[in-house]
Amino acid sequence: MKKVIFRHSISRQLLLSVAFLFTFSLFAHAQDQTAQDTTAQAESGQAAETDAGAGAAAASLGDAAAGKELFNSLCAACHKPYSNSIGPALSGATDRHEMEWLYDWIQNSAALIASGDAEANEVYNEWNQTAMPAFPQLTESDIDNILAYVEQPKPEPTAATTGAAQSGEGEGSGGVSVNIILGILAFVLVLLLVVLFLVNKTLRNFASASGIAIPEKPKTKPLYQSFVENQFLLVVTSIFVLLTVGYFSYGFLMQIGVDQGYQPIQPIHYSHRIHAGDNQIECKYCHSSARVSKHSGIPSLNVCMNCHKAIAEVSPETATEEYSKEFYDKEIAKLYDATGWDPASRTYSGEEKPVKWVRIHNLPDFAYFNHSQHVSVAGIECQKCHGPIEEMEIVYQNAPLTMGWCVNCHRETNIRIEGNEYYEKIHEELSKKYGVEELTAAQMGGLECGKCHY
Amino acid sequence: MSSNKKYWKSVEELEDKSSVVETLQQKEFAEEIPIEDFLGDKDNLADSKTSRRDFLKYVGFSTAAASLAACEGPVVKSIPYVVQPDRIVPGVANYYATTIADGFDFASVLVKTREGRPVKIENNDLSKFKGGVNARVHASVLSLYDTKRVKRPMIEGRNVSWEEFDRQVVSELENANGEIVLLTQTFASPSTTKLIQEFSSKFGNVRHVVYDTISEDPALNAFQSKYGRRALPHYDFSKVETVVGVGADFLGDWQGGGFDAAFAKTRIPENGKMSRHIQFESNMSLTGANADKRVPVKPSEQKAVMAALKGYIAGGSTSALSEKLDDAVVKAARQLRKAGSAAVVVCGIPDEEAQAWALEINEALGSRVMDTSNARVTRQGNASEVAQLVKDMNNGSIGALMIAGLNPVHTLPNSKDFVEGLKKVKTVVDFTTRTDETSQLSKYVAATPHYLESWGDIQYSEKAFSLMQPTIRPLFDTRQFQDTLLKWTGNDKSYYEYIQETWSGGLGDRNWSEVLHDGVFEASSPVALPASAGSSASAISYSIDDLDGEGFELSLYTNTAIGDGQQANNPWLQEMPDPLTRASWDNYITMSKADAEAMGVMNEHVANGGLNGSYVNVSVGDTVVQNVPVYIMPGQAKGSVGLALGYGRKAGVQEEMQTGVNAYPLYNDFRSVQKVKIEKAPGVHEFACVQLHNTLMGRGDIIKETTLEIFNTKDAHVWNRVPEVSLDHQETPVTSPEVDIWESFDRSTGPHFNLSIDLNACTGCGACVIACHSENNVPVVGKEEVRKSRDMHWLRIDRYFSSEDNFTEDIEEKEDASGLGFGDYIFGDREGEGSLSTFDRLESTADNPQVVFQPVMCQHCNHAPCETVCPVAATSHGRQGQNQMIYNRCVGTRYCANNCPYKVRRFNWFNYAQNDEFDYHLNNDLGRMVLNPDVTVRSRGVMEKCSMCIQKTQKTILDAKREGRTIEDGEFQTACSAACDKGAMVFGDVNNKDSKVLEKKNDDRMYHLLEYVGTKPNVMYQTKVRNTTEA
Q1: Quick count: other Cβ atoms within 10 Å of Cβ A404?
Q2: pLDDT at residue A45 in the model
Q3: Does B552-689 match B705-803+844-1025 in CATH topology?
Q4: Which of A433, B10, B335, B776 is deepest in the core (most CB within 10 A)?
Q5: Is the Cβ–Cβ distance between B903 and B791 less than 8 Å?
């Protein structure tokens, strides 16, 4: 073994410093996280306490949990606990009225009004003489339970933060263990490097001390020069380079105008996840023209108002860590603003502001696509082209919408002929001609240029 | 060959030593460009902060930025309704039945609307009383989106609110110093009549004068004096066996038009029978062109013909006619008598006597065709009253004049007097849709909506009615004439409620919604027709007995495209070629060849294929219309000329569409026949004529024609021979598969579309041409481009003249040619037997040629020559028989157009949409509203052609699929076949055994265009049969 004189190496130093930096930052990060976690935990604990304290009063009326169930099935269509809807807000009803009166009213309000009860008539007239249906099936204890539920104090929006904190905690604990392992590994690596460096240094010192000259490397031709001189290599390389450039530029050019994943910000944050996912509203309830027209149709705002007349705010469970309940409620307010709906007086002002949505799926003018052909005739699920729409918080373009993508599907998809008299004859004749059981859309003529381009 | 002609561009050039001319001859740009000034100033250049390097940097950067930006798609906004109307589904068309009643065209139509905007006019098949849904009616949807419309009420050119307008006008009306006169178009509306009566009783001292731009006064007067009502007889042409027309263009606009559909159906030979049509006329009209026998006769002689006809049929003296003419009249009379009650004589001469004779003859024949009990009331004008009004205006007795639906300043023959009179009337209110000459001179301009934005009830005849309903919310701040009258009479109702009130109880067992849905109904009018004013002192009595003497007899007519000129600002109509002259964007004097030669007037084709013609000045009395181009018209009666009214509009018409000359000043006393002096004027006019070749030259492969006699007696092989080729020395028809070099695809499954065009039923009216424009977003290219043969019509109607008296002789002449005859030919012998001299002769049209119209669009060949030559496969064949043109694939080599034997492919030389160079409807937001959203707007550099309305066939199929049913015959339609109310175009699926089109395909008369080429087209034609049998 020869001794080597120590030489200053920039690359080595660089590597070292990077390794150091990395380990350090990891530790710092882990610390930050733990600090956050502790504060969040403390906060949530406090919130829970206040909740419990305030709820105690309502608990005396009955079982709030049972009441919630009853409320949701019977009352929620017209009443909300904390705000006016078709009927008044129910919270505070026990303060406003006697319990006995409430039993009578809820079990049969019409009879109470007819009896000439002044209080009943006042309520009746105050709410535009909208009759409340009778609920003779409710026992007094049921009513107690409902009232117990609605008399619970309004939950503060801490719930969302609590949720976020809890999930953050989970993430944090997982992160620490991985970080530790990584930290240890990095430490070992650094140790190794240091050892190597020291060994190298020692050997060189030893060599110089023992007077062994480290042989100079013979000067050879630089690599690039020999490369340039080798014609064959040059040709092969340039072909290779050209092919690579060609490949990537082709890829680049082919994706021009293909807007897969296009996810514009919309003027109203409408969440398909909440509507189609959580609430399982059928797509064609809102996009009704997809059944009969070439357009799926962006629903007009009056369709939104069918439900949102009654739903002025989202439930606390709808909120996610990213979007809070306030955020969603503000978006609903935007809808009210656009339609000119005043939730307080429950009237339309007549001042309408059409919403300018950003179109996501833009087919070029020369391509004709008809939704009803695919939705009604072929019975294709919306998700086949639009992707997991029920999971999308913000809708993006799922499919590339290229001609190749269309054609592929036409080649693979069989025609749905069940119960369609139109196809009877033509399907029989064509399947005989092609010798197949079931025809694909392509065999039916779905690949002819003129079917989509005119 | 040298010429002594001197060409000059301005009068200046005629002077010998004009310095201006010299300078201009030397230098195209007379003004020097100050290069020296700029480059000489070194200091200034050095001071400039932008160096050449900077400049290059900027250029480079902006190019790169532009190309990068092009990769990014634009952000497209979609704006849904806030509250969606129940009946509107985006992407699904709604149809409404309504009625056009602009004073000239009256017709029941269906309006197709998409997302609430009308995009197309279609026939209302429920309408038994056919109003004429002609090319103008089809194009009227574009006039809705006319940028030159009056957008809001104006006082002295200032925009005002309706409140202010009402206040000012009503106060002026109440204090009117003199009579209040309502000068209106024929509304033919019971509610409007009632309303005007109420208005009269409110204001008192009100006179209502009705004036038709194109007057039918002679016929109205004749009818009135015979039957006591001011109306016109109705003619049911479906009952016709023999018709004799004397100067009556009854397939065109004669007496309001709309007779062509019924008549065309009698032209299709069935059980060996078809109607016979003899026409005496001076101008070559659509009617004459379709006649079995056409006799060119000057207007003055037409009256003699009428007299003779009357003499032969109803008795009485017959005036002296030339022997030849007398023979024709005798034969016609014999034919009429033979047909008896199925015969009719129609007369278009502006002569009360002749009109009365026509009524008399029809009575004598006991004609079932003429119906006087259900008389037409769509022409109510009274020229005498208009003349009286102009007189009264000038002597200052009129306090207020309200003009509705008219443009008298432009269309009155004595417009100068009228304009003078207008100055003496204190209050002039013009109710108008578009800015025009009259509105410019009116103090008050009341903006009225288009008929597609209005309510109305229309009375066609004494029994037939139709309703008008809005199909779109008014685009501008307009108010209907009737609504305004209601307001001014202090009535709070809207006109809609007013109409309902008029008809409450008048609809019999049908209710309002039902009638509104159908658009048409039969009833008797709840309102009496306005009593015609008694014979006033100045009553004009129409007679054409004063035509003797020097000069030409001018017949003024309205042409198919522009009509009375209301829609002059409609580019579709301007670009629509006249069916007979094939010229667009113009009106012109039509003159016979003999007269033209005598006057030294010429028509010639120039190198780029354009047609040039001389100018003439036309004068009636003191009125001179200068620089009218001349079109030499075969078949024009010698000594007569024709000129179309309706052109020459300037005010409120876009510059490109200010075409032609105004012929109204020649329309003296509303008489369509005038004695005129014509003299040649200097200069050459450039026509935009789309057909360069006039005669058929005996090419029986294009038009097959035969007579009824041969058709009935001989085998189809004789008169409709399929071309044959030799296969192993055996004559084999080219249609048989063994002589075909192509392999046929199997087209037996699914629909296979065919289109049949019956040359017998086609009158050449051009409704299909406009329907095609409207359905397929065909662009308008303008006069200059049309002249370069760059018109974009997907569907053209070729018109062929015969060079002999009929086409059969043409063919004989061509077949008889022997040898080339080169020797004779170069020595100037044009009469020889050789083919060179024969073809020379065939090129010139006969004096009274036979005419045939042939609509030609893409023939959708099963073996299409265009498909094989496309290098990028942009045109391909569908299983349903359609030859598909894929615009996004086309690179514009134009090989396909070169290889097409039918010349039906059109090339987009420019971007016609959103291009200031082509400032027609596609260049503004309003005009683009008429576009069909289902059809691509083509861009520059791509080929386009008839698609056989694939968007319509696909829609029909999809509807059936969605409803899970089979498709009935008649459901498949193209735009042209749907527009053809004559039944000339039949479209359908030949794989459907019960289809009408299959029946047509197996008809003996069926042939394909240029069958010997072997293209196997999916468009077929039915041989033209003429009923030449003389009784």
Answers
A1: 9
A2: 43
A3: no
A4: B776
A5: no
Portion 552-581 of B in contact with A at CB < 8 A: none
Question: What is the pTM assigned to this prediction?
Answer: 0.82
The whole-angstrom distance between B270's CA and the closest CA on chain A is 34
Q: What is the mean pLDDT of residues B299-313?
A: 91
CA B628 to centroid of chain Cα atoms: 21
pLDDT single digits (tens) B541-598: 888 888 888 889 999 999 999 999 999 999 999 999 999 999 999 999 999 999 999 9
Q: Is B80 on the interface with A (CB under 8 A)?
A: yes
Q: What is the pLDDT of residue A172?
A: 42
Return phi, psi of residue B981, to 5°: -85, 0
**Residue B420 to residues A296, B184, B389, B519, Cα–Cα distance (Å):** 61, 19, 12, 43
Mean pLDDT of all residues in chain B?
88
Q: Is B463 within 8 Å of B523 (Cβ atoms)?
A: yes
CATH architecture of B154-215+381-522: 3-Layer(aba) Sandwich (3.40)
Query: How does pLDDT run across B664-683, given as a tens digit for each residue?
Result: 999 988 899 999 999 999 99
Is B92 close to A293, i.e. CB distance below 8 A?
A: yes
Q: Would you kindly state where each structural domain of chain B is located, as residue ranges?
A: 154-215+381-522, 217-376, 552-689, 705-803+844-1025
The answer to whether residues B334 and B286 touch, using CB atoms and an 8 Å cutoff, is: no
Residue range B598-617: mean pLDDT, rounded: 90
CA-based nearest residue to B672, from B645, B707, B708, B704: B645
Mean predicted confidence (pLDDT) in B749-757 = 93
Q: How high is the pLDDT of residue B958?
A: 94
- This complex has an ipTM of 0.83
- pLDDT above 70: residue A2: no
Nearest-CA neighbor of B285 among B327, B338, B346, B230? B346
- Out of A292, A365, A426, closest to residue B92 by CB: A292
Q: What three-state secondary structure class fits B95?
A: strand
CB contact under 8 A, A421 and B80: no
Which of 909-938 (B) contact A at CB < 8 A?
A: 934-937
CATH topology of domain B705-803+844-1025: Alpha-Beta Plaits (3.30.70)
3-class DSSP string for B604-649: EECCCCCEEEEEEEEEECCEEEEEEEEEECCCCCCCEEEEECCCCC
CB spacing of B73 vs A419 below 8 angstroms: no
Residue with the bigger pLDDT between B834 and B684: it is B684
CATH fit for domain B552-689, picks 2.40.40.20, 3.40.50.10190, 1.10.443.10, 3.40.50.300: 2.40.40.20
Please state, in angstroms and rounded to a whole number, the distance separating the CA atoms of residues B460 and B466: 8
pLDDT digits (tens, 9 = 90+) for B37-49: 777 777 776 676 6
Report residue B780 as tokens. Answer: 């308008």
Looking at the domain B217-376, which fold is it? Dimethylsulfoxide Reductase; domain 2 (3.40.228)
Average pLDDT over residues B874-897: 93
- The residue of chain A nearest to residue B879, with distances taken between CA atoms, is A445
Report whether pLDDT(A145) > 90.
no
Extract the tokens encoding B410.
Answer: 């432009």
Question: DSSP label at A216?
Answer: P
Count of helices and strands (H, E) across chain B = 34, 42
Interface of A with B in 144-163 (CB under 8 A): none
DSSP element (H, E) containing B333:
helix B323-339
* Residue B971 DSSP class: -
Say which residue, B813 or B913, is predicted with more confidence. B913
Question: What's the per-residue H, E or C state across B655-716?
Answer: HHHCCCCCCHHHCHHHCCEEEEEEEEEEEEEEEEECCCCCECCCCCCCCCEEEHHHHHHCCH
Give the pLDDT mean for B493-506. 92
